[in-house]
Specification:
This protein has about 475 residues and is α+β, with helices and mostly antiparallel strands. Helices cover about 35% and strands about 25% of the residues. It has three domains: about 1-250 and about 315-395, no CATH class; about 255-310; about 400-460, OB fold (Dihydrolipoamide Acetyltransferase, E2P) (Beta Barrel), CATH 2.40.50. It is globular and about 70 Å long.
Length: about 475
């Protein structure tokens, strides 16, 4: 983790350039904002009263667009997850101004100096957000989690809920969350292991704005509270996906795994990094043993992620089982409708199925259109995130041209290698040959250019 010294405000200027370059929306058109303000005043009148249920939220401390709240109760040997999802569809109708703008955006974009929301703040951070400052309309999914972690959608209803607390990942205590929270996470982890899932999260580079307005660049591994909270979302998304598949409809998140040749290259990479990968152990099983706190193991985790074919969206197709390789399951996105357009339609589909109603035609039509829209949105989100990191790296290293830095080779790219600096959270590419993954080397910084978001290193001495 490194603070960024930026007296010339190059970071702010660079972020403004990124917003322009990648067409990041700046606020909302007046007509959309006006329509959203009117929609936010809609009084829920088709919702059951579930205010007495002890819901809480768990998110980053600064978050205000809260998609999910949860409550847990025992049912014999099972656990019942009551998972409340923001009822975005109550405020956004098919074809209205807010809806059309959301289709243009696809998802919320996050940059270090602020986000570009999918919906106007009057909806996303107020009327629809499951904040604890008043009752909110939600779709409450009841998911039954068995002792072995198997999940089943028991029901769904529109309901008014009241969150009891806005909990934060970095400060939550075991006594703050409902009884059964840790046990549910344990069951889901056991279920993942039984399925052979490979949902492993390496630490990621992140540029973060601090409370005093400065920024820092870091590698940020997931906190245990984040991992446990993700287990709840996983349970709901899997149960909803199974229900949609059983009713031969839906929109699914799919991903294929590395082919045999890529797996063999990953084995070579593990060997180069000094890691032991038994010949009889498959990729899924092996990667679950990797520790993101170890630099060499984290490097292999990143390489495994890059070896996959990427996740995408796929509507139901007769005779095709939608499969997510990393999850080793049929999977859907349903739990973040304030931030992802597709989730609003999956939620509507699951609500209809759970209540024995036909899926609205508008939802079915949307499933056919959403893969392209979400693919474009996902690509823009990835591009803006990487651009912000490249900018931060260039600013961090400005003025240190000529200095040498220790680094380790993490993988190969065209005409060179990718390296991780040893003493700061910087990843760079270097034109070099004769190196292997895991090799240590010294680099000399040749140039930095914050305007182009680039840094150039070269080996300080010929590689041995």
């Amino acid at each position: 983790m490194k603070s960024l010294t930026d007296p010339s405000q190059a970071l702010s200027a660079g972020l403004a350039k990124i917003r322009t370059e990648f067409h990041v929306p700046d606020g909302f058109p007046v007509d959309v904002a006006t329509a959203a303000a009117a929609a936010a005043k809609r009084v829920p009148d088709r919702h059951a009263d579930r205010i007495a249920m002890p819901f809480v939220t768990l998110d980053p401390a600064a978050s205000t667009d809260l998609d999910q709240a949860f409550s847990i109760e025992a049912s014999g040997g099972d656990l019942l997850l009551h998972y409340a999802i923001a009822d975005v569809a109550w405020f956004v109708e098919d074809g209205d101004m807010v809806d059309l703008e959301a289709w243009n955006r696809g998802e919320t974009l996050y940059l270090p100096d602020g986000k570009a929301g999918l919906y106007p703040p009057v909806i996303a951070e107020a009327a629809a957000s499951l904040l604890p400052d008043g009752p909110r309309p939600a779709i409450v999914f009841t998911v039954r989690v068995a002792e072995d972690g198997a999940v089943k959608l028991d029901g769904a209803e529109r309901a008014i809920i009241q969150s009891r607390a806005k909990l934060a990942y970095d400060s939550v205590r075991a006594s703050d969350v409902p009884a059964g929270f840790a046990e549910m996470a344990r069951r889901m982890a056991m279920n993942e292991e039984r399925r052979g899932a490979s949902r492993v999260d390496p630490p990621e580079q992140e540029v973060e704005r601090l409370a005093d307005g400065t920024f820092q660049l870091s590698f940020k591994p997931l906190l245990q509270s984040e991992q446990d909270n993700a287990a709840l979302s996983l349970a709901a998304n899997m149960a909803i996906a199974d229900a949609m598949l059983a009713h031969r409809t839906g929109l699914f998140r799919v991903m294929s795994g590395p082919d045999a040749s890529k797996v063999q290259r990953l084995r070579s990479a593990a060997q180069a990094l000094g890691l032991s990968w038994p010949a009889a152990t498959g990729l899924r099983e092996y990667q679950r043993t990797l520790d993101p706190a170890d630099p060499h193991q984290a490097a292999l985790m990143l390489e495994i992620r890059r070896a996959g074919n990427g996740a995408s969206y796929q509507p139901y197709q007769e005779g095709v089982v939608p499969w997510h390789e990393a999850m080793a399951a049929t999977y859907a996105h349903a739990t973040a409708p304030l931030r992802r357009l597709a989730d609003r339609y999956v939620v509507r589909c699951a609500l209809a199925i759970a209540n024995g109603q036909p899926v609205p035609q508008a939802v079915t039509d949307a499933f056919a259109r959403l893969p392209r829209v979400m693919g474009r949105a996902d690509a823009r989100a990835s591009q803006t995130s990487h651009a912000a990191i490249d900018l931060a790296e260039a600013i961090m290293l400005k003025g240190r041209e000529g200095d040498t830095f220790k680094a380790v080779v993490t993988d190969f790219v065209d005409h060179g290698v990718r390296v991780q600096l040893a003493d700061m959270p910087v990843v760079a590419t270097v034109k070099a040959s004769g190196l292997r993954q895991g090799d240590n080397l010294e680099l000399k910084l040749i140039s930095t250019d914050s305007d182009q978001r680039s840094i150039v290193f070269e080996p300080a001495a010929p590689a041995a």
